[in-house]
């Protein structure tokens, strides 16, 4: 049984995807006050933003104990980030490896901006904990998803705002199969099914066909990772990154 913190509120970076929805459930299971924040930065898969409200409604409806804890949602216009980003996440270009060695789905500064703005909103709202779905176990090498980055950013934010905010990243050391298992451990098959059907991960925004693992094109890196993770979750195996 988790001992809930009735005095500390949390703000969850909530995109509408699998990872952030799992983090939202994780926070609702721990804190008495949980708000959400999302960012519209001109992402190619903007359909994820359209999933957010439905997920929030389902979480409150299907898990009544969480309904009273789920607070306000904040959607922030970060179109400036899209305007200065020439990436496969913000342009209709083919997903490939860039000259830097990183996939061209990497949006430089994205998580740094997300967390900084979230910290400012949390400061104003009196919320001490920031929750993000960053992970360096199953990821594409994004430097702003690393544990060291989040730890350094926490120090910087607290110095810059004379605060004592905490950045929580519950998925940091989990592979995608373990992320599905975490959802199962929090809310059982009801939560797994909600995440499977209601969330969106596909980089190209494909939401026409519902697969066993959820909606998506099935070919982009996000879909392949989500599919492998779901299959490994069902079989009890670990996910290994492809060569």
TrEMBL record:
The gene is queC. One of its GO terms (molecular function) is ligase activity, forming carbon-nitrogen bonds. Keywords: ATP-binding, Ligase, Metal-binding, Nucleotide-binding, Queuosine biosynthesis, Zinc. SUPFAM superfamilies: Adenine nucleotide alpha hydrolases-like. NCBIfam families: 7-cyano-7-deazaguanine synthase QueC. GO terms for biological process: tRNA queuosine(34) biosynthetic process. Pathway: Purine metabolism; 7-cyano-7-deazaguanine biosynthesis. This is 7-cyano-7-deazaguanine synthase. Belongs to the QueC family. Catalyzes the ATP-dependent conversion of 7-carboxy-7-deazaguanine (CDG) to 7-cyano-7-deazaguanine (preQ(0)). Binds 1 zinc ion per subunit. It catalyses: 7-carboxy-7-carbaguanine + NH4(+) + 2 ATP = 7-cyano-7-carbaguanine + 2 AMP + 2 diphosphate + 2 H(+). Its EC number is 6.3.4.20. ATP binds at residues 14-24. It is an enzyme of class 6 (ligase). Its cofactor is Zn(2+). Zn(2+) binds at residues 202, 217, 220, 223.
């Amino acid at each position: 049984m988790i001992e809930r913190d009735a005095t500390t509120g949390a703000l969850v970076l909530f995109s509408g995807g699998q990872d952030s929805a799992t983090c939202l459930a994780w926070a609702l299971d721990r804190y008495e006050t949980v708000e959400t924040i999302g960012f519209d930065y001109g992402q190619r898969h903007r359909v994820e933003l359209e999933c957010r409200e439905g997920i929030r409604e389902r979480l409150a409806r299907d898990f009544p104990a969480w309904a009273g804890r789920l607070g306000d949602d904040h959607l922030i216009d970060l179109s400036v980030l899209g305007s200065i980003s020439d990436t496969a996440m913000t342009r209709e270009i083919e997903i490939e490896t860039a000259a830097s060695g990183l996939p061209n789905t990497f949006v430089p500064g994205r998580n740094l901006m997300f967390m900084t703005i979230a910290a400012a909103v949390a400061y104003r709202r009196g919320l001490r904990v920031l929750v993000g779905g960053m992970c360096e176990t199953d990821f594409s090498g994004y430097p702003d998803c690393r544990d060291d980055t989040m730890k350094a950013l926490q120090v910087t934010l607290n110095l810059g705002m004379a605060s004592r905010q905490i950045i929580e990243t519950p998925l940091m050391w989990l592979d995608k199969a373990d992320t599905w298992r975490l959802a199962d451990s929090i809310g059982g098959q009801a939560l797994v099914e909600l995440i499977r059907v209601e969330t969106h991960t596909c980089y190209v925004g494909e939401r026409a066909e519902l697969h066993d693992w959820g909606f998506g094109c099935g070919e982009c890196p996000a879909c392949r990772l989500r599919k492998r993770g779901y299959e490994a979750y069902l079989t009890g195996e670990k996910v290994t990154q492809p060569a």
